Amino acid sequence: MIADWFAQSGLLLLALLVVFLPGLLLGFALRLRGLMLWASAPSISVGLLALLAIVFPFLGIRWGLLAVTLAVVAIAAVTLLISFGIRRRRAVADAPRPHARNTLLLIAGLVVGAGLNAARLMTYIGTPTAISQTNDAVFHLNALRWVAESGTSSSLDISGLLGGTTFYPAAWHAITSLVVPDIGLIPVAVNMVALVIAAVVWPLGVTLLARVVSRGDGIVTALAAALSAGLMAFPQLMFEWGVLYPYALSLAVVPAAVALTITAVRSWRGARRGDRLRLAAGPGVAALLAVAAVTLSQPSSVLAWGLLVMLWFSGSLLLGIRSPGARPVLRWAVIAGGWAAVAIVWLALAYLAGPVLWRSYRGVFGAVADVLVNSHSLLPPAWAMSVLLLAGLVVAVRDRRVRWLVVGWAALSVLYIVSVGTDLPVIKRVLTGPWYGDSFRLAAMVPIVVVPLAAFGLAMIVRVVTAALPLLSRGRRDAVALVSMAVIAVVGAVGIALAPVILLRVADETDTQSRYAMDADSYLSEDEHRLLTELPDLVPRDALLIANPSTGAGFAYVLGERDIVPRTWAPPESLAWDLIAAGLRDAGEDPAICEALAAYGGPDYVLDFGIGGTGPGEYLMPGMTDFEGQPGFEEVAAEGEASLWRITACG
Fold first, then answer.
1. For the chain, which terminus, N or C, has the lower number of CB atoms within 10 Å?
2. What span, in angstroms and rounded, lies between the C-alpha atoms of 288 and 449?
3. In DSSP terms, which residues pair with 113 in a beta bridge?
4. Order of strands, edge to edge, in the sheet holding 633-639?
5. Rounded to 5 degrees, what are φ and ψ at 373?
6. Best CA proximity match to 215, nearest among 392, 42, 95
7. Predicted confidence band at 506 (pLDDT cuts at 50, 70, 90)?
8. b vs e for 392-404, b when ≥16 Cβ sit within 10 Å of the residue's Cβ?
9. Torsions phi, psi of 519, nearest 5?
10. Which pLDDT score is estimated for 507?
11. How do residues 191-240 score in pLDDT, each as one tens digit?
């Protein structure tokens, strides 16, 4: 398996360049340095590329690596010139420069966190060519082929895949499409971007948040990096459930967005009036791009950013409200205005998301227990992280400057509890509607605050142990921290070795294997996959296919490079489609079927992948199976129980 991943190292390098290089260039021009530069680079890249993807169609520019590279270099050059005009030649966003020992600790922590996150994801996926056997994967992979053909990855255009014209957040599609040198490599590119998000973007982002929250504490920062792989709820869960590639990207950049916002506000408030723009401009612009990255990846995640930023900002303003010249009325007005803005966006997203369909499956007490032992959404309890979280909560409660993080943990936990423990329609829609009431999405937000809190807890333990040890050397605290990281690495590696694939439990059902495994019983079976890859040799390039989309046949667009109706997993909602779904096999005897087919472009072929199912996201369509002996259909090819038929009934 490892050899298979190494064989795709070229695409992995390309994914790293796409995710990091634009942000590094622009971040450097904005005078970001050190960890602030490297950790914020992905969020800057995603925000910039998502915005460029929207602008390019208006300028008549096709989306591609060359055009994007030229645009990024030009923007970075202009930004650098402007930066020279308003600031001195000294980086301030990550100053003062950390001690060399802290840098070594940080590198060690990042190696541990990145290594464990990578090992967990690679083990679960299996091979880099594997495809997520889930409904959402059909849309996302097909969208990447559509981007390659249409030349646009704009959030205003991506719904064109399904013939729509509505907004759809396409930041993930914008960056991933740049990692696709050939349509045949789309599955590999998707997995490489997932690996970069899980093993690099997330550890760096949550590490930066820990540094900013702890005001530069080297031990807390390094330990947060090592602990970034401590919870299954994120990033691993988002590449299993759904599959939620865009949401995973959005949450991975939320920590950097929060950290950049806090840094920008601190720089502005802490500077003299004449220096404010010079000091706050860099992190401020980076923060705006990071928020754009979050919003254009998955808008609901901007609420996590808004919630955490407003908790910090409110606490910061209230800390000095009684000091001379504090202007308490103004402070309260700013706090009220900020929360009002969050509430308006929250309610708007809840309304746009529609009714919450997910039902409770834990009860309130069970949900509270999940929160306390970090076993959200029926994941295995994370006992060690829970102990460290408890220690971190004690530390944070005693420090007024960090207390807001405790409130953030409580708030995100309440959202999860409401999702899995109650069925009060109004409350559930208002509070969890932006996430569709999906407990998996809500659970994935919790690590954003749990990891820094656990790092505070472990740092306290390190200091207590250090104080209890005899004086051995100046660096004994660093040595204890390194030992703790080694323990994290060993425990994490043993956990992955003993349970390489942790199966999801959803309500009363449990997965039987990895959702990337392909066999006779998977969403897309081996026979079906083989038939789809043979389509270029079986049907003309301009042919149009039709099938029950919930059987995995929708993958024909990306794997078979042939158009299909529909290009996603969900069937169209129309009387014509209902007629086709129920009676396509009778087209040779019922002219009304041909009229219905004409409404969908008159498909030439039909894929028979079975009748479908009755589970979530599955549909029974008896008219799309059993064509043997039916007039008006000719078999073209078959692989096992999967077959391809030419429709001759309609002339």
1. C
2. 21
3. none
4. 563-565, 544-546, 605-608, 642-647, 633-639
5. -110, 15
6. 95
7. confident
8. bbebbeeeeebbb
9. -150, -165
10. 57
11. 999 999 999 999 999 999 999 999 999 999 999 999 999 999 999 999 99
b/e burial code for range 71-83 (CB count within 10 A of at least 16 → b): bbeebbeebbeeb
* DSSP of 36-100: HHHHHHHHHHHHHHHHHHHHHHHHTPPPSHHHHHHHHHHHHHHHHHHHHHHS-SS--TTPSPPPH
Is pLDDT at 414 greater than 90 in this prediction? yes
> Which residues have a Cβ under 8 Å from the Cβ of 136 and sit 6 or more positions away?
242, 243, 244, 245, 569
Tokens coding 139: 């849309």
Query: What's the pLDDT at 93?
Result: 47
Q: Per the structure block, which two tokens stand in for 351? A: 């309304």
Cα separations in angstroms, 192 against 49, 246, 330, 575: 18, 14, 49, 41
Q: How far apart are CA 216 and CA 221, in angstroms?
A: 7
Q: Checking phi first, is residue 546 left (phi over 0); if not, alpha (psi -120 to 50) or beta?
A: beta
Amino acid at 595: E
Whose tokens are 């079906």? That residue is 528
Q: Is the peptide bond before 566 cis (omega within 30 degrees of 0)?
A: yes
Judge contact between 355 and 429, C-beta under 8 A.
yes
Token couple for 429:
């829609």
Please name which of 253, 324, 243 lies closest in space to residue 511, comparing C-alpha atoms. Answer: 243
Residue recorded with tokens 């996302």? 140
130-187 pLDDT, tens digit per residue, is 999 999 999 999 999 999 999 999 999 999 999 989 999 999 999 999 999 999 999 9
Q: DSSP 3-state helix, strand, coil percentages of the chain (rounded to 5)?
A: 65, 5, 30
- How far is the C-alpha of 364 from the C-alpha of 312, rounded, in Å? 28
Q: What is the pTM of this model?
A: 0.95
